[in-house]
Design goal:
Length: 443
């Protein structure tokens, strides 16, 4: 699990080692020194007069975290356990439950469970609030403490009390911790359609996506009707892997650009940097997204959408359009700092607004989808403001009156449909895919 939304099982939009500029204090002016004097005065008063003795490390770390939390939800300082969490994002293995969590007003809120983990199998859902761990009330405590309790030796048990909006009473779960191994890409064949489920963007995601296409073709003995790329509940990961996954399906053109503070601080990334040509050979592609599709996932969805290489289907994505760089700060410590915004090939920033699907399809097979609140970037405190001035009033579309989406989960289940969005995508691919050639006899 992670320290914040993008600190769990792979959720960073970019990891880059950025050296600290020499002579950084040269830009500090007189007003800055006055503010630092105020800080030192408060520090000295706390050291001298606080009711309990407090060590310097606690005060300094608290000051650093407070400074960074005043910036945006994704800038943070990591040392000790937090630094180990950073390594998990790329190394991928830890003992725990498989939950992506954040903290909202002192409460631990589930962003998403990782697929095929104890949390996902138990039925914990996005939007749930964890109130007790092993019977101990944790609301108001630190997120780090909650994460540390949920992580632990594989094979050990832990009980969770969960408050689910819309549920009549709290839900009780007893989970057994496992080694959570990130399997970034899974694939299968569904009705002559290649289904590729990308859960996170770690160091091997792009390569595994290319291998998935090869494996699908080999198992079928021919090319499928098309491919579905499932990015739902994918919180993101490495920028380089998002570029690589986009490159799997593109032959040329820009994939993403990142822009820093200055106008000329722009870096662009293009197709064919990792893979030559379109490995899917121009076949139809549908990309599934939802409110848990964030960061690196939005880069892929935005690139394929802007190049008209895929139909994006589902509901509006999370809306995290910022890049975090990792600045080493000594042994087992690092500064995660938001250093740029990223833009899709058309110059669109997904910050706040997210990726709007080409085909809006709600997950009506989920019995809680109408009642469960949705958490997106725009809901986080001190989130970066989109410079394009996103109009929230047009971001959500009410589809509940649409007759196409009137079926109940029970009615869908009788039809053998457990995943309405996926079923809709399969039907779409069947309509778009190549039609079989029928031999005719000449007269």
């Amino acid at each position: 699990m992670l320290r914040s939304f993008l600190q769990v099982t792979a959720a960073v939009s970019a990891l880059a080692l950025v050296p600290i500029a020499s002579g950084a204090m040269a830009g500090v002016d007189t007003n800055s020194y006055r503010e630092l004097d105020t800080f030192m005065e408060v520090y000295n008063q706390v050291k001298a007069n606080y009711v309990d003795k407090v060590d310097d490390k606690t005060l300094v770390k608290g000051a650093i975290q407070g400074m960074l939390s005043a910036l945006d939800p994704h800038s943070s300082y990591a040392d000790g356990l937090d630094f180990d969490n950073l390594k998990i994002q790329t190394d991928g293995n830890y003992g725990g439950l498989g939950l992506t969590v954040t903290q909202v007003d002192g409460a631990v809120k589930v962003i998403a469970p990782t697929e095929d983990t104890p949390a996902a199998r138990a039925g914990i859902k996005s939007g749930d609030f964890i109130t007790h761990l092993d019977g101990k009330f944790i609301v108001g405590g630190s997120l780090d403490e909650a994460i540390e309790q949920m992580r632990g030796a594989p094979g050990t048990k832990i009980s969770l009390t969960v408050v689910r909006p819309g549920a009549d009473k709290p839900l009780q779960f007893t989970l057994v911790r496992e080694v959570i191994v990130q399997k970034p890409v899974k694939w299968e064949i569904k009705g002559n359609v290649g289904y590729i489920n990308i859960n996170t963007f770690t160091a091997q995601t792009a390569g595994d996506t290319a291998l998935a296409i090869q494996a699908i073709d080999k198992k079928l003995g021919h090319k499928p009707l098309g491919y579905i790329v499932d990015l739902r509940e994918n919180g993101g990961g490495l920028l380089s892997e998002a570029i690589g996954v986009s490159d799997v399906f593109l032959t040329h053109g820009e994939i993403v650009s990142q822009r820093g503070r200055e106008k000329n601080d722009i870096e662009r990334y293009y197709a064919e940097s990792m893979f030559p040509g379109d490995l899917a050979r121009g076949l139809p592609v549908v990309v599934l997204v939802d409110s848990g599709t964030a960061s690196a996932s939005e880069i892929v969805a935005g690139a394929l959408q802007d190049h008209h290489r895929a139909l994006v289907m589902g509901v509006r994505s999370f809306g995290k359009g910022s890049v975090q760089s990792i600045l080493p700060m000594g042994q087992r410590a690092a500064l995660r700092l938001t250093t740029a915004r990223y833009y899709t090939p058309s110059g669109h920033s997904v910050q706040e607004g997210g990726i709007k699907p080409d085909i809006l399809v709600p997950q009506i097979s989920d019995p809680d989808y109408k009642d469960r609140p949705v958490v997106r970037e725009a809901d986080l405190r001190r989130h970066l403001i989109n410079q394009e001035k996103v109009d929230d009033s047009v971001l959500e579309e009410d589809v509940r009156a649409d007759p196409r989406f009137s079926a109940t989960p029970e009615q869908l289940k009788k039809q053998g449909i457990d995943d309405f969005q996926l079923n809709y995508a399969l039907q779409t691919i069947a309509r778009l895919g190549p039609k079989p050639q029928v031999a005719t006899k000449g007269k």
